[in-house]
Specification:
Helix content: under 10%
Order of helices and strands: EEEE
CATH class: Mainly Beta
Shape: elongated
Length: about 55
């Protein structure tokens, strides 16, 4: 994976960075930040994870 396409996903509850993902920055340049339901290891439940810088 190239570094410029990587994004970090942060838990909305405990604020820990749990996941890394790819995003097409050319097509989604002006799109809002990505938000997904993922499993958080520290909270031990499914929570919203938001894209961070």
């Amino acid at each position: 994976m190239s570094q410029d396409n990587l994004i970090k996903m942060e838990c909305a509850d405990c604020k820990t960075v749990n996941y890394h993902s790819k995003k097409n920055k050319k097509k989604l340049a002006n799109a809002p930040r990505l938000e997904m339901q993922k499993f958080c290891k520290t909270c031990k439940k499914h929570t919203n994870h938001k894209e961070t810088k």
